[in-house]
Design goal:
The complex is a heterodimer of chains A (538) and B (126). Chain A is α+β, with helices and mostly antiparallel strands and 538 residues long. Chain A is built from 14 helices and nine strands. Helix content of chain A is 57%, strand content 8%. In chain A, the strands form two sheets. Chain A has a five-stranded mixed sheet with strand order 3-5-6-8-7. Chain A is elongated and about 140 Å long. Chain A starts with 18 loop residues before the first helix and ends with a helix. Chain B is mainly alpha-helical. In chain B, 38% of the residues lie in helices and 9% in strands. Chain B has five helices and four strands. Classes of the chains: A alpha+beta (538), B mainly alpha (126).
Chain lengths: 538, 126
Amino acid sequence: MGLSSPAGPERPYAARHSIRYRFGAMVVVPTACLILLWGVLVTFGTGLDDHMSSLTHQQLAEMSVLVGGGLVVVAAAVILMGSFARRLSRDIADLGATAQHLADEQLPQAVERLRRGEEVEPPDARPIRPRTRSRELAQAAAAIANLQHTTLAAAAGEARVRNGLRQVFISLARRNQSLLQRQLRLIDALEQKASDPAALADLFSLDHLTTRMRRHAESLTILSGAAAARSWSEPVPVIDVIRGAMAEVEDYQRVTVLTRAEDAVAGPAVADMIHLLAELIENAALFSPSDTRVEVRAERVANGFAIEIDDRGLGIEPTQLNDINQQLADPPDFDLANADRLGLFVGGKLAARHSVRISLRPSPYGGTSAVVLMPSSIVVPAAEADAARPPAAPPGNGETGPLDLRSAERLALTGHGPPPPVTAPQQAVTAPSPRQAPPDGPVRASQPPAGTYRGLPRRTRQASLSPHLKDSAAAAGRPSGSGSMPSGEHTPEQARDLAAALQSGWRRGRQAEPVDAQPAANAWPAAGQDSGPPQSEE
Amino acid sequence: VGSGDKWVDRNSGPVVRPYALTGGRTQPAAGEVLDLITVIAAVRQAPEIDDSIRLSPEHRKILSLCRRQATLADVASDMALPVGVVRVLTADLIQQGRIAVVPRRAPGQQPSTDLLKEVLHGLHAL
C-alpha cells in the first residue's frame, strides 16, 4: 500500500505544511476560542451583574479563576507540546538529511568503488543514530539503514558478477593468445624455411590473419582491465612500434610510415602503444577509401613524442569529433551499449594507462588526423636507446668498408674473412699486474668482456685495490680458491659468458639457413671486440 | 592465469612481423634473381642517402652488412630474418643502385686444375 500511493511526485514540497505549521494551527485555534470565551465571560459577567443577582460576585470570580486556571493548563500543554513538536520536526529533518546524504554521496561512492573492484567495508550496523526517543522514528531510521545495507549488498553482488565475467574474459583471451602465440612461432619457423615466393606469400597471409586475431584477443584483455600478455624490458624503436601496429591492421599495405626519428618507446609501454596505434591506424584505414593512403608521421616534440595518423577519408562531423575526443580523453566505464566504438574505447583506456593524449581533428586533406602525444616518461631518446640496446654483432672481422668487386670469390668462399684476432699477447704486455684475468686460462676465457652484453660496465677484480693489498689478497685468496682461480678453470662469470655466447650462437644457427658454422663463429668476435678498446687503454 | 601466459622480450616474437617489413611483397622487385649464394656488396659510389626517410631500418642494416661483400644467406642470418624477406629488401636496394650483385664467374671461365697446379709448382720452385 505504501508503494502504491507514492505521495511524492504529484505534490510539490511547497504545497505541503510543516509540522510546526500544523501544530500551530491545532494549538492556536482552540486557545483562541478559550480566550474568547474567557473574555466573554468577564465582559458579560459585569454586565449581567445588574439584572441577574442570582450569580453572585463570588461565583463569577470563581468562574474566572476556573477559566484562568484552564488557560494556564492549556498554556503549559502548548509549551510542552511545542517542544515535543520541535524535537520531532528536528529529528525527522535529521533523518531526512542523513537519508539524503546516503543517497547522494555515500551510496554512489560505495557502488563506484565496488564497481572498480575495491573492497568496501561492510555497512555500519547503525549508520544512522536517531536521537529521538520515539519508537516510530527509530524504526524509520532502522529501515533506512536496512535499505543501505541491501543496496550495498546488491552492488557488491553486481560487482562480483562483473568481476567474474572479467576473469572469464581474461582467461579466454589468454588461452586464445597463448595458442595464437604458438601459431605465430610456428609460422615464424615456416617463414624461415620458405624459399619459394609463392609459399612465402601464403605464409604471409596466414601470419597476417593470426596477428590480427592476436590483436582482438588482446583487445579483450584490455577491456577486462588486465595488462597485455606481451611485454618488453628493453626500449623498442618508435619506428618498430609503429610498424608493429601497422602489421596488426587489415589494410596494412595502404599505410606509409614516414619518420626519421630514432627515439624508442620504453619497454613496459611498448605492447600498449602498439595496440593503441593499431586501433587508430585501423580506424583511419577503415574510414577512408581503399585506394587512398594512410600516412603515419612521428617526431619528437617539446612535450614528448608525437605520432600523427592522417587519412584521406570523408572526415567526421565536428560534433561527433568532439564526442570522440571527449571519449578518448576520459574513457567512460565499459558499457556494452557502445560496442560499435570498441576500438576508440580501447584506445582511450590504453592512453589513460600511460597518460598519452590522443586528439582527433579534421585533416587538411579532408579526412581525419589523429595525433598521439606520448609523454617523455615513456619515450627514450635516441642516444639512450642505443646505449640500452645490446650491441649488434658485427658482420665479421677483417676488412670492412666498400669492397673491390674483384675479391669476391675469396670472400664468398671463406664467408667471413680471417679468424678473430687473438689479443692475448697484447694483454700480457700491457697488463702484467695480477689484477688481470687468470694467467694461463684458455685464451678466449681469459678475455672477460669489459661490459655485460647489455652495455653495463663490469667491475675489474681488485682494480681499485692498493698494490700491497692486492698481492696479499691474491696470496690469501689462492688457498681458499675464492680469489684467483687455478689455471685452466673458469670463473663463474666467465662460464656464464661462455654459455651465453654459445647459446646465442646456437639460436642464431637455428634461425639461419644452413650457412656452415658461421653464427657460432660470429658470437665470439662480438665478445672479443667488446673487451678490446678498454683493455688497450690501460 | 599462470605465468606461462606472459611473454617477455624474445618470447613476445618480433615486434614487426616479417610481412610488414616488405609490405606483403614476396617477389623481388624487377625480377631480380637472388639465390642463397648470390654475393652482394654495397656500391661504393652509392647515391647520397638523402631520402633516408624512405629506407626502413632493415634496408639500412642490409646496407651496413653489405659494406663488405656477403652472400644473401649471410645477410639473412645476420639479420635473423627469413631469406625471402631479405631477398625482397635487397632487390629494392639493387633497384635503387645502392647494392650490386657481384658477378659470378661462368663455369667455363674458372681456372682449370692444371693451371692451378702449375702455379703451385711455380710457387714451390721459388
